[in-house]
Every structure is written in structure tokens, then in C-alpha cells.
Design a protein that fits this description.
about 350 residues, alpha/beta, six-stranded parallel β-sheet, five-stranded parallel β-sheet
């Protein structure tokens, strides 16, 4: 069934774990209901988009930054495409793609969109918010889909899935091996720091970036001070002595506690938690020697830069479904939450990664 079958052999997924949680009856019921919702639109579906066709890509029904980065990463294959591609997404995700070098225009609503400006609507997947929008606003426009009914199916590597699906729908003809080697979370590369940030970070010299906080407790690391004490003890000349803390509001308490934890012999800490846009956080990470953090939105931002990383994963998030070889990441996977990772082990991994960078 297309709701659970991964059509690309090289894309990692976990159907066994999925069916341990979800009954086949539930899967069939949801699949049939989506088919009923799509019944009046099915004759308008196309399976290939021509190079010169004007495309509106709809990404609705999801709000997580990490999901959006992975799901839309395959657009990296379209940078030289002759026909324009625009994005329609939610207001919470619009800023993530500001300055993008693939999407010509980025919309957070349909008021300024004329359906006649597009030859094809690219429906990311058949989730209900997207289906309702397609039927209400673009009912007569042909559409294609990347993930189709594979919307609530087994967990998969969404970055790999995006590259595979974009390759197929846009008829790019790339081989599986090539796609596997190329697949990587994608945001426009912007290494230049704004002058104010460059001035603030210059005294640090070489620096590491650390992602603080987390949306869920299981993905929020609790031992940063112990980790940095261990790294401080292992410090040798030539290693980065600057530590830049990044994150959103949910990391403020952790960052403040760390900044008040006392001096380090070899390290200088700067906290930018809650102060930067994602675009500027991406720029800071791109200028660091290493990113360290738990699975989350900022981790995926980091993986869209050339900077290597050390990443922490809870049991519920298998690393092989979040990383690709081009992420250049060393993953530490636990059988519980990320705070089960020993801070000494994490510090040693950081040192080892720096030695091999």
C-alpha cells in the first residue's frame, strides 16, 4: 500500500517499528479516507513536471523547522531549473526560507497568488490541510505530489526521501547512488557574518557552537557544564577555545545557568540564545569549527552548513533516519533520553571530531 511502502530502495525507513505501534486496519482506514477526499481531484494529478513549467510548491500541515528543512531539501536539485518554483507555506516557516536561491517567491497566504500563474501545483504530501487548500484555491490546476499517501506511514529519512522524490517527479534522471551521495539538508549557503556579529565573535578566535534547550525533555541535554569542564581539561593549543551558545527561547534558562557556572581555564563563553534569527544562527554555525547539539531544528540548520557536528539522539529518534553521510556528523544514540549521554564521553567525542576535521 502506498501509505506504508517506501518506493525508493536506498531511502532508510522503519516499517517494522511502525506496524508495532499502528494496526493495519487504522492504516487502511486513513488511506481510504484520503482517497475519498481526493476523489474529485484525482483526474488532475500528473506524475512528471516538465522543465519549463511554472510550479507552486505547497508545504502545509507541518510546523517543525527540522521537518521543513529535511522535507524540502530535495529542491537543491532544482537550482538550475529553467522554470520558476514558488513556495506556499505557513507563516511560522516563511522566515526559514527567506533569501532562498531556489524559490523565486515565498508566500504565507493565498491572497497574492493567482492560480493562472502556475502550470502545476506541487503538493508535498496528501495531508488534510494541503488537500483542503488544493481543492478550495487551486481546484482546476493540475498537480503532482512528492510523498503522496506516504504521509502518516513509517518513519523515514526525509532528506533522502525528498531527494529521491524530486528526482523522480521532475524527471532529472539521477541514479540512486548519486542521490545518496548528494542528499543533505539544504538551506542557502551564507557564510558571511553581519558586521555586528563578526565584531562580537572576533575576540573568541576559533569557536564551537552549541545548541541549547529543546522542545521536548527527551531531546534536551542537561549536562553541558560537566561536558565543557571535561573539554576544558582536555584542551590543547590549537583547539577552539570559544564556545558560542545558540538556541531559541526554550534554551534561555539552560544558557543563563551555564553562563553563571563559573570560569573555565581555557574557554570563553558567549551566549546568543534567543537573540538571533535562524538565518543568522546558520551564519554563526557556518563560521564555527564544530556544532554540538541534540536532535532538533537547530541541528538540521547546522547540517545545512559545511560545518561538521556531534549530535545527540534519544531512543525515539534513530540517527540513521535524521542524518546522511554528507552531514559530516558523529551521532551519539541513547536508549532513553539524550541526557543519558555521559558528559565525559561527549567531551571526548568533541575532541576526537576536532582532531579529524
Amino acid at each position: 500500500m502506498s501509505s506504508t511502502f517506501m518506493p525508493y530502495w536506498w531511502v532508510s525507513s522503519e516499517p517494522a517499528a511502525f506496524f508495532n505501534r499502528i494496526s493495519r486496519f487504522t492504516v487502511v482506514k486513513k488511506h481510504l479516507h484520503r482517497r475519498m477526499v481526493m476523489a474529485t481531484q484525482s483526474r488532475r494529478e500528473v506524475f512528471h513536471i516538465k522543465p519549463n513549467q511554472r510550479v507552486l510548491w505547497i508545504y502545509y500541515g507541518k510546523h517543525a523547522i527540522g521537518d521543513a528543512i529535511m522535507d524540502l531539501s530535495g529542491r537543491a536539485l532544482l537550482r538550475d531549473r529553467p522554470g520558476p518554483v514558488d513556495l506556499l507555506t505557513t507563516s511560522s516557516l516563511k522566515a526559514l526560507f527567506d533569501g532562498d536561491d531556489v524559490f523565486r517567491h515565498i508566500y504565507e497566504g493565498t491572497d497574492k497568488i493567482d492560480p493562472d500563474d502556475y502550470d502545476v501545483i506541487l503538493v508535498h504530501e496528501f495531508n488534510y490541510p494541503t488537500l483542503r487548500l488544493k481543492k478550495r484555491r487551486f481546484c482546476k490546476t493540475p498537480f503532482a505530489s512528492l510523498f503522496r499517501y506516504y504521509v502518516a506511514g513509517p518513519d523515514r529519512n526525509s532528506t533522502q526521501f525528498s531527494f529521491a522524490a524530486v528526482n523522480k517527479v521532475f524527471g532529472l534522471g539521477l541514479r540512486a547512488q548519486t542521490l545518496s551521495e548528494m542528499a543533505k539538508p539544504y538551506l542557502r549557503e551564507e557564510p558571511e557574518l553581519p558586521q555586528e556579529l563578526a565584531t562580537e565573535l572576533m575576540p573568541l578566535g576559533l569557536f564551537i557552537t552549541i545548541g541549547m534547550g529543546g522542545v521536548e525533555p527527551r531531546r534536551t541535554y542537561a549536562h553541558w557544564e560537566a561536558c565543557l569542564r571535561a573539554y576544558d581539561e582536555a584542551f590543547r593549543p590549537g583547539m577552539p577555545g570559544g564556545i558560542v551558545l545558540l538556541g531559541s527561547g526554550n534554551g534561555l534558562a539552560h544558557a543563563r545557568a551555564l553562563m553563571k557556572s563559573g570560569r573555565f581555564a581555557n574557554l570563553k563563553l558567549v551566549s546568543l540564545v534567543g537573540e538571533l534569527s535562524l538565518r543568522d544562527a546558520k551564519r554563526v554555525i557556518a563560521n564555527s569549527e564544530l556544532y554540538v547539539g541534540a536532535d532538533g531544528g537547530l541541528m538540521h540548520v547546522a547540517h545545512a552548513t559545511p560545518t561538521p557536528s556531534v549530535t545527540l539522539f534519544a531512543a525515539a529518534e534513530p540517527a540513521h533516519l535524521r542524518l546522511t553521510p554528507r552531514c559530516r556528523s558523529i551521532a551519539l544514540q541513547t536508549r532513553s533520553d539524550v541526557s543519558a549521554i555521559d558528559p565525559q564521553e561527549l567531551a571526548q567525542t568533541i575532541v576526537g571530531s576536532l582532531e579529524n576535521r
